[in-house]
Amino acid sequence: MRDESMVSGLLEGDPEVIAQVRAWIRGAFTPYRSKLSSELEDLEQEILLELSQALRSDRFRGQSSLSTYTKTYVHHKCIDRLRALGRRQWVQVEDLDLRSQAPSALEGIQKVELATRILKEMPESCRELWQMLEQGMRYREMSEQLGVSEGTLRARVLRCRKGAVELRSKLFSEKSAKKIDDA
């Protein structure tokens, strides 16, 4: 088959022509097979795509055969990939911390359950203050709504926070004691 018909067949998606070009590509991989073994499948697809683009934009001028053009294209692409691989910084797997830093779903549920329990056990006045804070109210707005001074309100919020922290510590110590008893 002549090169012109091969080019048009490749651009039209002729399966026989594509199979022939793939055979040329795979044959040209031979000297690079050991160093690029994990990259060859992706590289073949990439080369076929770029080769089609080059042919579509008339970069193949027919100064050599299409087979030679393809093999030269593969050669340059493989060299480029080897250079890119050489620039990669390798890291020892043993040096990596592959554990997720995000809490697990169970930990998230446990935190929500703990927060819910703390909220239930706190006085109604504290829950009301936290609800106002959650709504984005400023201390000035809250103090006007509750009819107390801003300083008094800040002291109440601080006492509620301290109470919640103490309750949290108490619940954690109970949980730890239960784990020990269960063991």
Report helical residue fraction: over 70%
Radius of gyration: 35 Å
Taking the alpha carbons of the first and last residues, their distance comes to 79 Å
Q: Number of domains in the coordinates?
A: 2
Strand fraction equals: under 5%
Mean model confidence by pLDDT: 86
Structure annotation, total helices: 8
Indicate the CATH class of the largest domain: Mainly Alpha
The number of distinct β-strands equals 0
Class of secondary structure makeup: mainly alpha
Low-confidence stretches: none
**Overall geometric form:** elongated
Question: How can the largest sheet be summarized?
Answer: none
Element order, helices and strands? HHHHHHHH
CATH second-level architecture of the largest domain: Orthogonal Bundle
CATH fold call of the largest domain: Rna Polymerase Sigma Factor, Chain: A
Written overview of the protein:
This protein has 183 residues and is mainly alpha-helical. Helix content is 72%, strand content 0%. The longest helix is centred in the C-terminal third of the chain and has 33 residues, at 150-182.
Summarize the structure.
This protein is mostly helical.
Q: Any key phrases for this structure?
A:
single chain; 183 residues; mainly alpha; Rna Polymerase Sigma Factor, Chain: A; Arc Repressor Mutant, subunit A; 2 domains; 72% helix; 0% strand; elongated
